[in-house]
Amino acid sequence: MAAATLSKAKRRKQSNFGQDNLVGYLFIGPWLAAFLLFTFIPISVSLLLSFTDYNVLANAGEFIGLDNFQRMFFEDRRYWRSVNATLKYVVFSVPLRLLFALAVAMLLNTYRRGVGVYRAAFYAPSIIGGSIAVAVMWREIFGNDGLVNFTLNVLGIQGPNWLGRPETAIWTLIILAAWQFGSPMLIFLAGLKNIPKHLYESAEIDGANAWQRFLRITLPMLTPIIFFNLIMQLISGFMVFTQAFIVTQGRPLDTTLFYALYVYRRAFEQNEMGYASAMAWVMLMVIALLTALVFRSSSYWVHYEAGEGA
Amino acid sequence: MARIEAKAPAGLSAPRVIRPAVPWYQHQLARSVFYHAVVGVTCFFMLYPILWLVGSSFKPPDEIWTNQTAIIPKDFYPQNYPNGWAGFGGISFATFYRNSLFYATFGTILSVSASAVVAYGFARLRFRGRRIWFAIMLVTLMLPTQVQIIPQYIVFKQLGWLNTFYPLLLPRIGGSAFFIFMIIQFIRSIPVDLDEAAMIDGANKFGIFLRVILPQLTPAIITAAIFSFYWTWDEFLVPLIYLNSPELYLVSLALRTFSDPSGQTDWGAIFAMSALSLLPVFVIFISFQRYLVEGISTTGLKG
Questions:
Q1: Is there a contact between B116 and B183 (Cβ–Cβ < 8 Å)?
Q2: What pLDDT sits at residue B28?
Q3: Domain-located, residue A187
Q4: Do the domain assignments include residue B287?
Q5: Could you give the residue ranges of the DSSP H alpha helices within chain A?
Q6: Cβ atoms B266, B83 nearer than 8 A
Q7: What is the pLDDT of residues B190-220, one digit of tens each?
Q8: Cα separation of A37 and B121, whole Å?
Q9: Amino acid B113: pLDDT
Q10: Could you give the ipTM of this predicted complex?
Q11: For each successive 10 residues of chain A (310 residues), what is the average pLDDT?
Q12: What are the C-alpha distances in Å from B34 to residues A189, A211, B37, B106, B214?
């Protein structure tokens, strides 16, 4: 009897769930249409293109099986140089950015006067970070007669040709990325403010010093935020384009030919859209795999407070 | 810091505060000075490149290379601005600014208003497939542009839409996943009681959205609009692909051509136009800083 009423109630609830079917789809309609037209279909087409030698000028292409992938992995030397450059950039710029972001967030996690101004100042480089103006400026700063070498010269040091040497060029872009730690900083700051004060107070009573408090309270409590920032920064790190396009143009010797830049060149400068699509799909797979790995690893190092969403 | 207050005998003035002996560096004032010195100097180094750019844009041609490190020019030379504004190929920066303003304004209106509509659907309406579509929307945040842009380009080219703004604006009709997500979070914080009260009064879902939810969304919409405006203002890859004729150039594309090291030697003018292109973003940043900080802190938007 009771079970019957329950299942009836359940059924009613289920039909309740679909009560807004039409209105619901009307409201999300714009997104759904745009998703299908400009994301889903293009991505599927891109997969098909990756098995062809489609050339946009001729508007023709033939099915060539796995040739694009064969060429990419076994014949194209530049491809591996671009993979190398991208990995190096991500491996150095992402941790540096997160480190600066956390350090500055901890400095700003106080209620002193003027903190708001500092916060804005530290965030300012990030807000203009993607602009061409900053890239142009960076090219000048690290140019042969640029600001950095001028300053070194005053100090009696002969500065290297930063942008022209294979060992140094990529570092100018890594520094540019590290300089723009504003958004992870703000997210860390919000996270730091959420850590309950009583944890620190009881630790202090137990005689924990500042370093121990950081290691045992701050860091574990921040792991959900570190996790979130890591994912976001990894993804945007792999897609870096504009800075390299303007500052180094992939030079010298392809040491800054980042993946996205190489895809752009193949697709829009050499018109090899089939090959470029294959490269883009490999990039999609690698990003998906890495994101999945980080998600998988999170159960080992991300600490969630019971009942508290991050 | 521990403070010991001596009990003042009745009738005497305010209680005397006896501070325990602490080393000077632990005093409140010393700590404060130290804090502001460290953070202030770090801040200065962070901002130095930007200040340097603005300073250099006012230096006369010879001073740009001889007095490089200075932020404040010896000779004030505003002539760089009109020199730069003249542009290239007979097209002045007035055209580029008009294009950028049109694109950033129209693109922002399009993507933010669509985002608000879609967000309401996801946040308040119960329909089949809602969870799946929501999950798919979050996944699209992680997609590299490169996998979508090549087929898009092929189709837009077939349609004859190269050198028009359609390929840039049309994909925005569905809003942006970032803003949809942000506005959903915001709508969830609005009590459902209001919706229900309106429903009892006979309002349908559209009425609830327009009269109950939308008026309360103002802060979220402002935040989304600011982000949208400055992302659109800085956009580079997509305009680079579709806009090839200089009359259609956005400021970002124009700056790239203008500063081409092989063609241009008037660095004062390049610095002037670079600094000027940052101005709209800075003005918005300074006037709406609070919204930006809240937007990033609460939803983790990238900047």
A1: yes
A2: 79
A3: yes
A4: no
A5: 2-17, 21-35, 41-49, 67-70, 77-108, 115-127, 132-141, 147-154, 169-179, 182-194, 197-205, 210-213, 219-238, 242-247, 259-264, 273-301
A6: yes
A7: 888 888 888 888 888 888 888 888 888 888 8
A8: 20
A9: 94
A10: 0.80
A11: 49 55 89 93 91 81 85 90 93 94 90 84 84 85 82 81 85 91 87 86 85 87 88 88 86 88 91 91 91 88 61
A12: 21, 19, 5, 48, 47
Tell me whether B285 touches chain A (CB under 8 Å). Answer: yes
Q: Tell me how close the Cα of B175 comes to any Cα of chain A, in angstroms.
A: 6
Does B99 share its domain with B76?
Answer: no
- Which structural domain, as residue segments, surrounds residue A25? 14-43
B41 and B112 inside one domain? no
Number of H helices, E strands in chain B: 16, 2
Q: Which residues have C-beta within 8 Å of that of residue A62, sequence separation ≥ 6?
A: A52, A53
Instruction: Find out whether B63 and B75 touch, Cβ atoms under 8 Å.
Output: yes
Portion 2-31 of B in contact with A at CB < 8 A: none
Q: Write the CB contacts of B56 (distance below 8 Å, at least 6 apart in sequence).
A: B64, B68, B73, B267, B268, B271
Taking contacts as CB-CB distances below 8 angstroms, the residues of chain B near A19 are 126
Per the domain annotation, does A310 fall within a domain?
Answer: no
Q: Is residue A260 part of a domain?
A: yes
B153 near B161, Cβ under 8 Å?
Answer: no
Chain B residues touching A25 at Cβ < 8 A = 121, 127
Provide the pLDDT for residue B24.
66
Radius of gyration of chain A (CA): 25
Whether A140 contacts chain B with CB within 8 A: yes
- Contact yes or no for A228 and B270 at CB 8 A: no
d(CA A252, CA A22): 57
| Chain A contact present for B279, CB below 8 A | no
Using DSSP's 3-state secondary structure scheme, residue B17 falls into: strand
Q: Do A130 and B231 touch (CB under 8 A)?
A: yes
Q: Based on the domain organization, do B234 and B160 belong to the same domain?
A: yes
The per-residue pLDDT for range A263-310, each reduced to its tens digit, is 999 999 888 889 999 999 999 999 899 889 988 888 888 887 654 443
Do residues B236 and B183 share a domain?
Answer: yes
Within B159-266, residue ranges assigned H as helices are 166-169, 177-188, 192-200, 205-207, 214-216, 218-234, 237-242, 251-258
Question: What's the pLDDT at B104?
Answer: 93
- Looking at the DSSP bridge assignments, the partners of residue B5 are B17
Rounded to the nearest angstrom, the minimum Cα separation between B150 and chain A is: 7
Q: What are the structure tokens assigned to A270, written together?
A: 């050499």
When mean pLDDT is compared across A12-26, A287-301, B149-163, B225-239, the lowest value belongs to A12-26
Residue of A nearest to B275 (CA): A133
B227 and B101 in a common domain: yes
Check pLDDT > 50 for residue B3: no
Q: Which one has a higher pLDDT value, B30 or A79? A: A79
